[in-house]
Structures are given as C-alpha cells and as structure tokens.
Amino acid sequence: MYLKEDRIMIIDELVGFSNFYGSNEELVLAGGGNTSAKDGDTMYIKGSGTRLCDITAEGFVAMSRSKIAEIFTKTYPDNDKEREALSLKDLMDAKLPGQENKRPSVETTLHSLFPQRFVLHLHPAIVNGVTCADNGKEVAKELFGDSVLWIDPVKPGYTLAKICYDTLTEYKNKMGKDADIVLLANHGIFVSADEVEALGEKLYSVIAKIRAEVTKEADFEIGDFESENFQDMVNEISAVFGEDSIITYEPSTVALDFAKDKESFNKIYLPFNPDQVVYCKPYPIYVEKVDEIRGTVEDYKEKNGFLPKIIFVKGCGLYGVDYSQKGSETAVALFNDAMKIAVFAESFGGAKPMSPELTDFIVNWEAESYRSKQ
Known about the structure:
CATH architecture of the largest domain: 3-Layer(aba) Sandwich
Strand order of the largest sheet: 3-2-1-4-7-6-5
Strand content: 5-15%
Number of domains: 2
C-alpha cells in the first residue's frame, strides 16, 4: 500500500521524465507520445491534447486500473464506430472522482497492460525507420531477438489494445516474464520499467542498435532551390488558401530531393504514422508550376473534404500551410519527421507507409479528431 508521500513522489517522477523526454524533438513532436505511472490500483496517464514537454501534474488523468481491466473482458461490436464509441465510454467511466473534465490519452489501455510502474511511449524517427520499413519486423527480430515485442499494423483504439493484450499475455506465458519493450509498426515504441532510470537505459539501447545499422540520414541543410520562383509560389498559395493563411517554407536538401519529380514524391505521399495524419493531414500535394496549385488544391478539397497542409513544389521544396503560425510550423516539423523516417527506412528495405484503410480510419477516428483540436 502506497502512502500519500509515495504518491506525490511518483507523480513528481512522472512529470520529470515526461518533460525530459518530451523536450527532445528527436524523440517526439507536438502533442505526440504519452507517459504513465501506477500507484496501486490507480494509474496516472497523460491527458489527451497535452504536450509531454511542458505537462504538469494537472495534465495527468487518474484512472482505475481495475475498471480499465474490465474492458478486456467485454465483447464489443465489429462495427468500427460502434466499437470505439462503446469502448471509449467504458474508458471514460474508469476515471476516478475529480477527473470528470479531463480526457485520458488515446493509448491509456495500452499503458494499463504493462505491470511495471512507469511507461514511456514515444515516436522517434530513428525507431520508426524500422517500424515503417518493409523489412522492419525481420530487422527487429535480428537486432533484439525475444527481448522486444513487435506488433503488426492495426487500427488504433480497442482493436490495437486487444491485440497487445493477447500478445503480451502470450509472451508472459511463453517466457515466464512480462514484456517491457514493444515496437508498434507504423507508430513507435513503448518502454516500461519500475525505475525511471531504467526507461532511458532501455530506450537508448534500442536506438543505439538501430543507429548502428543506418547507412543514410536525411540532409536538412538548405539545398539549391529555385529562389526566383519562391515569392511567386508564396503569392499563389496565399491567394488560394486566403490572406489569413500562414506559410512555412522548407527548402532543405531532402525536401528538394523528394520534390524533384513525381516518382520521388510518391515515396512520401502516403503517411507513415498517426501523428503525421493528425498534424499534416493524410496526403501532401505535388506541383511543378505555379499555375498548377489552384486546380490541384481544389481537386484535393473536393476529394477529401478538407484542405492540404503540405505542398511539394519541384525545384522549391516543401511548403506548410495553416491558419496559425503554430499549425503551419508543426505541419512542417511533422513532415520533416516523415522524411527522416523515409530515409532511415532505406537502410531496412525501404519505407512502408500505412495502408489506405488504416489511414482512413485515423482520419475519421473521433479520438484523433479530438486530439487534433486541442
């Protein structure tokens, strides 16, 4: 049984390592990633829409572990919308008194599966170079053996949680111990431990082994872009999106490489992970000339029901567009991350994006829609 002082210490540790890892943009960007800590039957989990880099104790949601466990004993409908709505209601009912105005992370159920006291979930591009690679599963097995669990791409929410529940249970029955590191394909890494220091040891051990196999990294130095076309592109994008739109420009070497022709662009057209969908919209657009922008954007909106946030222009690089400085810069930051992943993945058989089915699910998933609005 934990004393009040123990609970305060655990929360302080939770805030501390959340801020520490959340402040490293090589590990997580924007509102991505989540953390948790357990105190008896209570689990403190990052609230949806908060950021690890500056989260405080108030940003965590206190949950009943026993009530969360009941979710895995229930049967939900096969229909995506009904299943997610009902499982979300059960998750909300697991909040402890006083937490009514908070919403727990979309991955709360995953955190509950680890018996270890602390759990850290991040999306490092270097790790996703493996989880988003054609040979990722085989590479993970070769590098880590049975010490790291691999989960194939699957719809997030209850479906992912149930598959993880079954996989972690099977692992414990087979190995006689609990898993403490999980790689989620097209997503990221979960690390768990009873001591905060051990989280870093495990995380950086995984990263070091992957980095030792990397043969190429993305070059973000300013490239040789067509500066004479820059202002014409800015003016046209502003005219299409409106004068209140904010444009962030990225003429890096790697952006120019992916923008050199349609074949190169197609390598990063499909998203690699959920964060990319949330912060960049699912699909960027590609144009070669100024007079192509308007028609391409209009076709995109008619097809998808929303405007794109990322535009690749031949000879110029990448443009991020949103209606706030933060939104525009965040979209570019997340797409820079996607380009990093694509280049890292070249060392592991080439990049493997999410399927259209999985992408569409995330686009329409209520939990991610909520997070993107925060």
